Amino acid sequence: MMETKDILNVHDIMNLSHTNGPGRRMVVWLQGCSLGCIGCFNPDTHSTMPKNLMTTDDLFEKIFINDMDIEGLTISGGEPFDQAVPLYHLLRRLRIETSVSIIVFSGYTLSQIKKISYGPPLLSLIDVLIDGPYLEQLKTVNDFRGSANQRIHLLTDRYGMKDFEDIPQAEIQIDPQGNICISGFPDSLISLL
C-alpha cells in the first residue's frame, strides 16, 4: 500500500478498552506490518492490502467524539511506524485539540524509531511507547507486554510505571451484531475458562 499523508489503513477499532493501557481507552489497530514477528497472535494485521482506509480527519472525529468517555488512545498493529506520516498527522492533531493520552505499541526498538523518517517527531507526541519485536520464546502471560524483551518507555510524565501494574490481561467484547473482539493477551483468557 502506498503511504499517503492523510490516509491510514486501519485493521480495527475498539471504542472502549481496559486492557490496552491505564484507564478507559480507545484502541486503533493499524493494518500492515513489515516485521511479521513469528508467533504473533494478531497475524491478520500483517498484510499491507487495504482493509479499512480512513482519513486522519475521519479517525480524529471518531476519537474526538469519544474524548469525554476515554482517558486515552492506544495505537497498535500491525506496525504503527510503517504508517508514520499519516500517524504523525493524526497524533499531532490529537495533541493540539484534545487531552487524550497516547500509547503506541511498536515492534521496532526506540533506537530504531529514532532513525526512521518521522520517528523523532512522532515520539514527541507519544506519552508511552512499548517497543521491541514480539519474541515467542520470551512470551509473557501476566504482563502488559507481549514478550519480556519489550520495554515500556515513559516519554512524558503523564504516567508512572505503577500505572501499568493493575491492567487486566484480556477482555472479550461482543457488539450488537454479535461480532466478538478479544483484546489483550488471549493466553490469559484460557486460564480464566
Percent range for β-strand residues: 25-35%
Q: Which percent range fits the helix content?
A: 10-25%
| Strand and helix order | EEEHEHEHHEEEEH
For the largest sheet, list the strands in their spatial order.
3-1-2-4-5-6-7
CATH architecture: Alpha-Beta Barrel
Structural class: alpha/beta
Q: Please identify the oligomeric state.
A: single chain
Radius of gyration: 15 Å
Find the CATH superfamily: Aldolase class I
Helix count from the secondary structure assignment: 5
Overall 3D form: globular
Average pLDDT works out at 86
Broad CATH class: Alpha Beta
CATH level-3 fold name = TIM Barrel
**Could you describe the largest sheet, including whether it forms a barrel?**
7 strands, mixed
Strand segment tally: 9
In total, the number of domains comes to 1
How far apart are the first and last residues' alpha carbons, in Å? Answer: 39 Å
